Amino acid sequence: MTAFESSTINTSNSHISTPPEGYSDSSRALYQVAQILLQQVVDLLNTTITKDCELSHPSTLIPGSTIGKHLRHVNDHFRLLLDSLRSSSSSSTSGGEQLLECNYDIRTRNIASETSHAASLESFRHLLRRLERETGEGRNVRPERKVRLEAVTPVRVLLDSSWARELWFSCLHATHHFALLRVVAVGELGLDIPKEFGVAPSTLVSRIEREEREREREREKL
Questions:
Q1: 3-state class (DSSP) for residue 142
Q2: DSSP 3-state helix, strand, coil percentages of the chain (rounded to 5)?
Q3: What is the pTM of this model?
Q4: pLDDT tens, 115-150?
Q5: Rounded to an integer, what distance in angstroms lies between the CA atom of residue 68 and that of residue 95?
Q6: How many other C-beta atoms lie within 10 A of the C-beta of residue 7?
Q7: What 3-state class would DSSP assign to 153?
Q8: Maximum Cα–Cα distance for the chain, whole Å?
């Protein structure tokens, strides 16, 4: 058993517990990752980024960027993926299951959540409730469920994907923007951001395994 299989990944006020041996429901596992990432934002807005001016501060290190814009962009991707469950196409796959259609280019900009702390916090609380309810905590959507992804490149391109792949993409996309958010929050505003925020799950796993190896070496010295 690896260190990850026997450990818990701690985030600010949440944790990812490894599923029991033999557990193969990737939708449930990915739901947990998404839930924790979104909860990190709620925790951050409750404890660290608490002012409208912090959300709307124009970055000098990342021109054109604000913390509010990064958070709105992250929220958009999860929201649009969940929207595909609500408004799936009448088209169906060979198994008779409705095909999900998703287009991440349909986004909203310059909305209240980019500049209002209260609006941003509520948008992520609402997103967490939707994720839990509409996926049944990850149990109600098969990981292999077909998704037709539309991309504007600028020509319209249709791509075949799956629910698990798109949920994982949304998680990695969020992690990327959390890292950029950290640059603004720490480097420009001098805020104290939890060390786990903006760190990819694979990096957290690597840290756990390294710490476990270091503890093992210390035990061998005794």
A1: coil
A2: 55, 10, 35
A3: 0.80
A4: 999 999 999 999 999 999 999 999 999 999 999 999
A5: 42
A6: 19
A7: coil
A8: 65
